[in-house]
Automatic annotation (TrEMBL):
Organism phylogeny: Bacteria, Bacillati, Bacillota, Clostridia, Eubacteriales
Any one GO biological process: pyridoxal 5'-phosphate salvage
UniProt keyword list: ATP-binding, Kinase, Nucleotide-binding, Oxidoreductase, Transferase
Gene3D superfamilies listed in its UniProt record: 3.40.1190.20
The name this protein goes by in its record: pyridoxal kinase
Organism: Acetobacterium woodii (strain ATCC 29683 / DSM 1030 / JCM 2381 / KCTC 1655 / WB1)
The EC number(s) this enzyme carries: 2.7.1.35
GO MF, one example: pyridoxal kinase activity
Pyridoxamine kinase/Phosphomethylpyrimidine kinase domain segment(s): 74-263
Keyword hit for Nucleotide-binding: yes
NCBIfam families attached to this UniProt entry: PRK07105.1 (NF005491)
Length: 285
């Protein structure tokens, strides 16, 4: 029996070249079966990793008019999904949008895209990082990496010098920002494995999802992970299952990129791995 198609609002930037943000989220969530609406926070000629002299247009002034028009249409969203925000002012604007469109059956996922490898991205400031913690408080699920977790908590970034006790304590502290489910990415206790850890406040349980590490750095994988995690959850997989699917699909995307010998700065070949994702989500029947 067919059910009503779920609708998602994806609030991310658009990099015109380089697969990340909306150019990743929109096709993945669409392939997963969802009506995906988009609200661009900025437009860049390329993403910021591996490219110089990129153009950047801040779309802060457009967020409220778009949100107001959506409200006039009496739109309902089954999920709200935010990522890279283009200015400090956008944090409050997106928080207001959440307040406007959240309902009892709306899932809100915040990927606090702002930092990696111990450093904030070029347009971000410590003030924006602190503001992002307030947005996370409005989310059902947050998906930071270890660097972003440190900035959200205003703690030092300790690099690879962590153990399971540190990671689990970190997730508990992140939950105290307000979100009831936490997923931290880029976790590894074994040089041959890489994955993520989850924490569910309601059950006070931690779960780990790993797969074989592919040694190298690939742009856009965080956006692939977050979009796939949301796709799993909205297709009725639980948090542990959705996280494992996201870990596995992200690795499949990297494998395709390596097999095709593609230039890494343009992002990974997630398009070639979409049949794998559709199969994992049981969407072939």
């Amino acid at each position: 029996m067919l059910t009503k198609q779920k609708r998602i609002a994806a609030i991310h930037d658009i990099s015109c070249v380089g697969r990340c943000s909306l150019t990743v989220a929109l096709p993945i969530l669409s392939a997963a079966g969802f009506d995906t609406s988009v609200l661009p926070t900025a437009i860049l000629s390329t993403h910021t990793g591996g490219f110089e002299n990129f153009t950047y247009r801040d779309l802060t002034a457009d967020i409220r008019p778009i949100s107001d028009h959506w409200q006039s249409l009496d739109l309902h969203f089954d999920a709200l999904y935010s990522g890279f925000l283009g200015s400090f002012e956008q944090i409050d604007l997106v928080a207001t949008l959440f307040d406007t469109f959240q309902s009892e059956d709306t899932l809100t996922l915040v990927d606090p895209v702002m930092a990696d490898n111990g450093e904030l991205y070029s347009i971000y400031t410590p003030e924006m990082a602190k503001g992002m913690s307030k947005l996370c408080a409005k989310a059902d699920i947050i998906v930071p990496n270890l660097t972003e977790a440190a900035f959200l908590l205003d703690e030092p970034y300790i690099g690879d010098h962590y153990d399971q006790n540190y990671v689990e304590a970190l997730l508990v502290k992140l939950s105290q920002l307000g979100s009831k489910k936490i997923v931290v990415t880029g976790i590894s206790f074994d040089p041959s494995k890489l994955g993520a850890v989850t924490y569910d406040v309601a059950t006070n349980t931690f779960d780990y999802a790993f797969n074989e590490r592919i040694t190298d750095y690939f742009h856009g994988t965080g956006d692939i992970f977050g979009s796939t995690l949301l796709a799993g959850l909205l297709n009725d997989f639980n948090l542990k299952e959705s996280t494992q699917i996201a870990v596995d699909y992200t690795r499949e995307c990297i494998l395709k990129t390596v097999e095709l010998n593609q230039e890494k700065r343009y992002g990974v070949c997630f398009e070639r791995a979409l049949p794998y994702l559709i199969k994992r989500l049981n969407l072939l029947s």
